[in-house]
Amino acid sequence: MTSGRLNKIILIADDCELNRDILEIYFGGEPYKVLLAENGQQALDIVIKQTPDLILMDMQMPVMNGFEATKAIRSYEKKQDRSPVVIISVSGLESDSEKEEIFQAGCTDLIVKPIRKNILFEKINKYLNTKTATA
Q1: Which of 77, 95, 115, 119 could pair with 82 as two cysteines, CB 3.0-4.6 Å apart?
Q2: pTM for this entry
Q3: Do 56 and 66 form a contact (C-beta atoms < 8 A)?
Q4: Which domains does the chain have, with CATH numbers?
């Protein structure tokens, strides 16, 4: 087990409780600290208070959607001179124009729903330079 993994914080921002629960189960055997947000505003508030290493951002949420939240996070990082956090869009969107909109908002990468555990951990390992038991 790599000690660096113990300090990694992953924020899950999704309005669907079932999706959050499934992702929490995926991370159950992994040594990451998992934070949860039900909407984009909560995700932004968490980013301001803490510094997650990676965000899994649903794009369709109430209060503040994932596009708005990602733009707000990028703006906040710039104002605070913070390094950009990895934001992976978790979306059912599949058209090229929608994918382009996701990246224009400031997302680092994209996972299309339904989320496959092996794809999720491949991306996490890629961006956090970690190896998980499941990948």
Answers
A1: 77
A2: 0.89
A3: no
A4: 3-127 (3.40.50.2300)
Dump pLDDT digits (tens) for 116-125. Answer: 999 999 999 9
Look up residue 37 and give its amino acid: A
Strands (E), 72-117: 86-91, 109-112
91 pairs with which residues across the strands? Answer: 112
Short-list 16, 61, 52, 18, CA closest to 34: 52
Three-class HEC string of 62-79: CCCCHHHHHHHHHHHHHH
Q: Measure the CA–CA gap between 37 and 105, rounded to whole angstroms.
A: 19
Q: In terms of Cα–Cα distance, which of 134, 135, 127 is closest to 9? A: 127
110: number of Cβ within 10 Å: 19
Q: How far is the C-alpha of 89 from the C-alpha of 66, rounded, in Å? A: 8
d(CA 36, CA 33) in angstroms, rounded, equals: 10
Q: Between the CA of residue 86 and those of 70, 108, 122, what are the distances in Å?
A: 10, 6, 14
